[in-house]
């Protein structure tokens, strides 16, 4: 299975958590930074594509402008949480994670789904926006605590803004594409 791929201009990362995929709504494509939370239409396309590929979010929707602004603020808080985790600053992780969790009304439950029983994360699982926020908050907390925190990394490729789960000790980039960019840059410098 590929660690990540582009589908319809959307970055899909099947091996990463929902929160990490949420952060990936802003990514470097080799030419520029793409922000898929820039407009309501691009946010809806991002949700629909990820839903089809990795079932996140559970129910895609078109956010209105206020929801979109909150999602961008939440993305900044998740990124700050991840950065503090990678930097090894436990106090900052706790502070930033509290900001992330403040966005969500978390209540763990279950619902029947086509594939069986599915976990729900908010007090209003029928509201796609509340459920999305809660799912991001829960998976962000799981990504920066316990064993998962020791595997969280920031891609070392120039201009890449992505975080990833390190699956082996030799992995330094979020993808082979970023690894190739670094190698080409090194080769160009040595000439």
Automatic annotation (TrEMBL):
SUPFAM superfamilies the UniProt entry points to: Jann2411-like (SSF160904)
Domain called Zinc finger CGNR: residue spans: 152-187
InterPro entries per the UniProt record, alphabetical: ABATE, ABATE_dom_sf, Znf_CGNR
Protein name: Zinc finger CGNR domain-containing protein
Domain of life: Bacteria
Organism field: Mycolicibacterium doricum
Pfam families: ABATE, zf-CGNR
